[in-house]
């Protein structure tokens, strides 16, 4: 791709990662933490990170809007862009409507998070923040292939894209939360160790649902984009990048299975036995696996960012 397209792909990747965390971290606190734990140190860390992510999401959205205006006008210099072009995109395109919804959702996310913290009303913002974050993440569907159809197929594709994005955001958010719990300075304390053990072992059902949604919507999305046709698998082609994405996704499934069936039970056994050295070894092994899985997830999102700008047609 030419350099400007690489910039656009980089912005897409940054938005995917950022908004996945803005949605996924509060969602994790909602389903993994007990009510009293949602006022604890770990929940506050998740909330602070997601609030920072919301602010970054607004900045990235502004940059994406400017880049879209440059691409639509063919301007070689950002200084040549005029205000009416940006206004036209915001008010006259589906991308612009989605952009406005995203920025509004992120502003509401920040207001809700800061006000709830300041007023000490904790105790319930996880669902509210996850809802605002989910809306912001869902708007990215309008910047991909889902917006290329008309009629009923358009709505089916957008619904599938939104579901795919939310499932991916839930997975990325869970990975980030597990890494926060497994980081050295937090796992030396008994409560954090117990929380990591319980949440890692209790993630199986939710993780299975996430994987099922990703597989079903991923297959449907490909069918709606390319139809019953196998793409060419040349390097840097749509098919080649899609194949790389599937290989990385399979690697993530393997790592997740290792976490579920080997590493998390080992940690639970060490925690029950009150064996600190064994618990430390289990945490270190789980942390390494989570880092590998998070790296694979970042690469998958990078490929998705590029694939959303490519056509599956050969040549």
UniProtKB/TrEMBL annotation:
Keyword terms of this UniProt record: Cell membrane, Membrane, Transmembrane, Transmembrane helix
An annotated GO BP: copper ion transport
Membrane topology listed for this record: Multi-pass membrane protein
Transmembrane segments: 13-34, 46-66, 86-112, 124-142, 162-183, 203-225, 237-258, 290-310
Compartments where located: Cell membrane
Domain Copper resistance protein D: 200-307
Record's keyword annotation contains Transmembrane helix: yes
Gene name of the record: copD
Signal peptide: none
Any single GO CC term annotated in Swiss-Prot or TrEMBL for this entry: plasma membrane
Protein name: Copper resistance protein D
InterPro entries in the record: CopC/D (IPR032694), CopD (IPR047689), Cu-R_CopD_dom (IPR008457)
Keyword Membrane: yes
């Amino acid at each position: 791709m030419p350099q400007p397209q690489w910039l656009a792909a980089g912005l897409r990747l940054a938005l995917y990662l950022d908004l996945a965390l803005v949605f996924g971290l509060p969602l994790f606190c909602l389903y993994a933490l007990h009510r009293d734990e949602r006022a604890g140190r770990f929940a506050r860390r998740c909330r602070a990170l997601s609030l920072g992510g919301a602010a970054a999401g607004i900045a990235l959205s502004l940059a994406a809007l400017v880049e879209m205006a440059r691409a639509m006008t063919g301007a070689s210099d950002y200084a040549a862009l005029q205000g009416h072009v940006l206004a036209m995109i915001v008010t006259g395109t589906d991308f612009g409507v989605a952009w406005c919804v995203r920025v509004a959702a992120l502003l509401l996310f920040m207001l809700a998070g800061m006000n709830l913290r300041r007023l000490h009303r904790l105790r319930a913002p996880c669902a509210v923040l996850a809802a605002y974050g989910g809306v912001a993440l869902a708007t990215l569907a309008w910047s991909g292939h889902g917006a290329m159809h008309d009629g009923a197929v358009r709505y089916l594709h957008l619904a599938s894209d939104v579901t795919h994005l939310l499932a991916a955001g839930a997975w990325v958010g869970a990975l980030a939360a597990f890494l926060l719990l497994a980081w050295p300075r937090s796992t030396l304390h008994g409560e954090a160790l117990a929380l990591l053990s319980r949440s890692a072992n209790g993630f199986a059902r939710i993780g299975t649902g996430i994987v099922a949604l990703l597989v079903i919507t991923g297959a449907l999305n490909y069918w709606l984009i390319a139809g019953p046709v196998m793409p060419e698998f040349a390097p840097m082609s749509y098919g080649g990048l899609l194949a790389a994405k599937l290989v990385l996704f399979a690697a993530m499934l393997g790592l997740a299975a290792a976490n579920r069936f080997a590493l998390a039970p080992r940690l639970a056994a060490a925690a029950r036995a009150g064996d600190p050295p064994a618990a430390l070894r289990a945490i270190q092994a789980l942390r390494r696996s989570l880092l590998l899985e998070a790296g694979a997830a970042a690469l998958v999102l990078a490929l998705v960012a590029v694939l959303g700008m490519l056509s599956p047609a050969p040549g």
